[in-house]
Amino acid sequence: RKEVEQDPGPFNVPEGATVAFNCTYSNSASQSFFWYRQDCRKEPKLLMSVYSSGNEDGRFTAQLNRASQYISLLIRDSKLSDSATYLCVVNRGNFNKFYFGSGTKLNVKP
Amino acid sequence: DTGVSQDPRHKITKRGQNVTFRCDPISEHNRLYWYRQTLGQGPEFLTYFQNEAQLEKSRLLSDRFSAERPKGSFSTLEIQRTEQGDSAMYLCASRDGTPQETQYFGPGTRLLVL
Question: What does the alpha-carbon distance between residue B46 and residue A93 come to, in Å, rounded to a whole number?
């Protein structure tokens, strides 16, 4: 079983829509969680860390459910510029190794 | 530019040749990671350095792959006797030692083995 699993999508949504992605992780010892954004043929860039209590950054909200071992990302009022692949990342706490999901592709259309 | 840099950005080589990639991390970062990414996949961990010490190495890293970070600053990743399956994007990332701090990626080296 993969360490981190994501629905590859693509999610095709109109501008202004709200879209949510989930990501599941297999190791209950995972302690740190992140969402990265990756544009086509570019490097991944940190979108936001995911905290136990959930956190929000503008139009983006991240949630963690430890009991069910999943992380979610909610994007409100989608913009064309949100089109990208969103990568879920987990770490077991020693920070020696980060595990990436395969990414969920989002296409926001006019 | 104070970000992570990688060189070269693109490399085309013939099967069986050796290639070497360089990564310069953010200057105050003592942790450095190498990843490999193929189309449609997320980055796969290859190896990790804390200062000059290589602390973790993936089973994906065959004996044809070697990485060094001799002075705890820049790092090199060498692939010997390249194979077509080595074609991928090789990403370097760095972070400082602060708990919960995430990593920052360089632009990657795109390798094509013919």
Answer: 18
B91–A43 C-beta distance less than 8 A? yes
Contacts of B18 (CB under 8 A, 6+ apart): B78, B79, B80, B81, B82
Three-class SS of residue B73? coil
Disruptive mutation site among B41, B47, B94, B103 for chain A (greatest number of A CBs within 10 Å) = B103
Compute the mean pLDDT over every residue in chain A, rounded to the nearest whole number: 94
Whether B105 has its CB under 8 Å from any CB of chain A: the answer is yes
For A51-62, the pLDDT digits (tens) are 888 899 999 999
Beta strand spans in chain B (E): 5-7, 10-13, 19-24, 31-37, 44-50, 53-57, 65-68, 75-79, 88-95, 104-105, 109-113
